[in-house]
Specification:
alpha+beta, Lipocalin, globular
């Protein structure tokens, strides 16, 4: 009897760990949004009652000069960055709330929170516009196809990503 209860308890713990998995949706080459993190953002300076959401974005290191400069300043090889994007759907504006940089071993090695938010107008044909479009349209559809890919991380874990295009 005790063995059965232990087995059931272990099975429940195993199932619970999977609930917290991110749902990364590809929005551009080496750039993703976590669809499961999309939430209403309560901005204390929202005097106009605008519709504002937050969502996590992941950008993989693509070897550009910007990434190389950051790596040089930090003194470590970086694998990716996560940033909390705040999107004002009413005013078509975007701001970054937080940035976290990760090394090759997926250790968070740098983080920064921005306050106050620095709102930027969203320019056409930019990543900001892709984020705005995905976040501000009806949240139940996300316009995704059924295409699934698995990315293998340097630490051996797997991330499932889906493209919305």
């Amino acid at each position: 009897m005790k063995k059965n209860l232990l087995f059931v308890f272990a099975a429940m713990l195993t199932m619970a760990c999977c609930v917290f998995a991110a749902d990364w949706v590809q929005i551009a080459e080496k750039q993703y949004l976590d669809a499961s993190s999309l939430t209403t953002y309560n901005y204390n300076l929202n005097f106009d009652n605008d519709i504002i959401y937050s969502i996590w974005q992941k950008r993989l290191n693509n070897g550009t000069e910007n990434w190389k400069e950051v790596e040089k300043n930090i003194g470590k090889k970086l694998w990716y960055e996560k940033s909390l994007q705040i999107v004002n759907c009413s005013k078509k504006e975007i701001a970054v709330k937080s940035i976290i940089l990760y090394d090759i071993k997926e250790n968070a090695i740098f983080n920064y929170d921005y306050y106050p938010l620095d709102w930027q107008s969203i320019a056409p044909e930019t990543i900001g516009e892709s984020i705005y479009t995905d976040v501000c349209r009806t949240t139940s559809s996300w316009g995704r196809t059924d295409v699934s890919n698995i990315i293998h991380t340097p630490t051996g874990s797997k991330i499932r990503v889906r493209s919305h295009k």
